[in-house]
Structures are given as C-alpha cells and as structure tokens.
Please model this.
Amino acid sequence: MASGRVTIFIIDDDASVRRALGRVMAYAGFDWKSFGCVEDFLAAIGPEDTGCIIVDLIRPGLDSSDLKKQLDAANLRLPLIILTANDTEEAQAAAREAGAVAYFRKPVDSNALLDAVRWATLSPSRKNAHESL
Model:
C-alpha cells in the first residue's frame, strides 16, 4: 500500500463520514484510504506505510484500544486521531488509553482536524525540532 508519501487512513463505519473526511484530506493535498472497520484496515496495512489514522471511537468490531494493541503487536507506529459522536468522560478515557494524539467530537471542525493531521504526520526529526521551539 505504501506510496512513499504520507497516507491518512480513515476508519469509520459510516460511508458518508469516510467520504467527507476523504474530501477534506484530498483538498489539503493528502493521500487517503478509507475502511469501514478496523479489521479491513489491519488486513491492508503494511510495515512500510506512513501517516496517521483517523478513527471513530465507537464502531462495530474491534474498538480503538484493540486497534492500538494490534498496531503495537505488528510494530506499526501510526498516530491515532479519534473522533466520537458521544463525548463522555468514558470516551475521553478510552481515547487516552488508546494513545490518541488528538480527540474530536463530531461533527469535527475541518481546520482543527487538518492541524492535528499535519502535526501527527510530521517526521520525528521535524516534530522534535518544532517542539523545542
């Protein structure tokens, strides 16, 4: 799947949400791929893939903490950006447990989401330089 460029992986069981987020990513110049469930994403991802994951917190099948465990087991280091329509203390705790780099309530502000994607996809050397400023 790797193209040598950063790819934004969108996982949401709602096809209209996947299309909308894909349009936002494409407009911003990102390559993107979408999946209806975590299992489909895990079957398609490879160790050479770079980018980040935008994932709905509540979906059928594996949840975001399961996704984090699967990524860790496969030694894949893709940052998670979690979206949810149900912003509760439990949802926030689940996002923290999954190691999310960002957490947004739906409907998400496109500019804020893009800021999080840009930050999450900075190379480690650029991110470290940026954080030391």
User: Anything to note?
Assistant: The chain is about 45% helix and 20% strand. The two ends are 34 Å apart (CA to CA). The chain has a mean pLDDT of 85. The chain has one domain: 7-131.
